Amino acid sequence: MSRNQQLFEQSQTLIPGGVNSPVRAFGSVGGTPVFFKRGLGSRLWDEDGQEYIDYVGSWGPMILGHAQTDVIAAVQATAANSLSFGAPTALELDMAQLITHLVPSMEQVRLVSSGTEATMSAIRLARGFTSRSKILKFEGCYHGHADSLLVKAGSGALTFGQPSSAGVPPELAAHTLTLPYNDVAALEQLFSELGEQIACVILEPVAGNMNLVNPSPAFLNALRTLCTQSGTLLIFDEVMTGFRVALGGAQQLFGIKPDLTTLGKVIGGGLPVGAFGGRADVMAFLAPLGPVYQAGTLSGNPVAVAAGLATLQQLQRPGFHDELAAKTRQLTDGLVQAARDVGVTFSAQSVGGMFGLYFSEHCPNSFAEVMQCDKAAFNRFFHGMLEQGVYLAPSAFEAGFVSIAHSEADIDQTIAAARQVFASLR
Ligand code: PMP
User: Fold this and answer.
1) Which of 218, 220, 318, 361 has the highest CB neighbour number within 10 Å of its CB?
2) Average pLDDT over the chain, rounded to an integer
3) Active-site residue, 237 included
4) Which GO MF term does the entry hold, naming one (predicted)?
5) 240 & 348 share domain
6) Given 265, 327, 391, 410, which residue is catalytic?
7) What is the DSSP string of 179-214?
8) The whole model's pTM is what?
């Protein structure tokens, strides 16, 4: 038995499902999850010594690749001065200055320790600020696992929420409205009926938790206009897209100014950091100034913030995001060509350093369209690629990530592997 398998069997006796976060368990694709031991740049090595090209990047944070020298040095130097104070530090001010500079809609910002905390806190703040209870999210968007956000739509224009997890009281889920992504007519109808009861709309401005789905410009514009008209706060959840699709995130890419923004992943460079921020008049509602409570023992942790600052430092190099986007496009273009050459139905697209792969004729525009992709073909593709030493997200419903450390040779090797795997799928 391989060490991976041994570790998984032992882990299952002590850790529910053998993992500390569900999608790691390969539940969607089947098989034994890979236990990693080491990473460097674009490469990973598992407990059996097998090498992989990594397209998960810890689900987004590792935009510079693994064990990047400056990030590790910043972590080591900061750790030597203590791991935590539970009191303010100059590093947190540096981070606040940098975030508000790079994402100008964020006039003020508060640091937390995960994306879940960021979105949960932003929702509470929006409800406190507006004195309204209802929130709107979109089908297929994931915003962390706070109770109010673990709700997805049934199909149809307007659905009062049913919890999508046990343990979420229906009374709470009923405050969460859901609509299909990119459906402007449904959005307009909902706002005409209930707009003035909705505290906030939260969305992934490029959806990356139902594979990758791009927003239409009309959808984003309608959101901004309707929210402004009805006094509803527009929250861009940029936990995934922040600093990845552009230096200023999706809001810079699409030219839309949200009222609040949530961040995570890249701003911690691989250590736990999240953030939420936006309009100063809204942020003034937060404790200790205002009536909305929010706190954290390790919030703004110096070591995590140092890793994030060292990461953000490098993203500011002119041309960084153009280079990252070009690499990612080269990957998706190559995969589409390889599939076409052997007659496999496949499409792919990228936005900055994130990408979507679909076993369907066209790239999907909604959760319903994502669900029509051939999941069995994806699962076979995933395992074929894994055998060839390419580590993709173990689910057909996740976006993929490229880092700046991925080389031309990595991309070529990946496309060559895919060519073989596609051929075996026919
Ligand atoms: N929002 C989005 C858009 C995410 O992609 C994620 C995590 N994948 C979260 C929120 C939750 O972040 P975390 O896992 O750090 O709690």
Assistant:
1) 220
2) 95
3) yes
4) glutamate-1-semialdehyde 2,1-aminomutase activity
5) no
6) 265
7) E-TT-HHHHHHHHHHHGGGEEEEEE-SSB-SSS-BP
8) 0.97
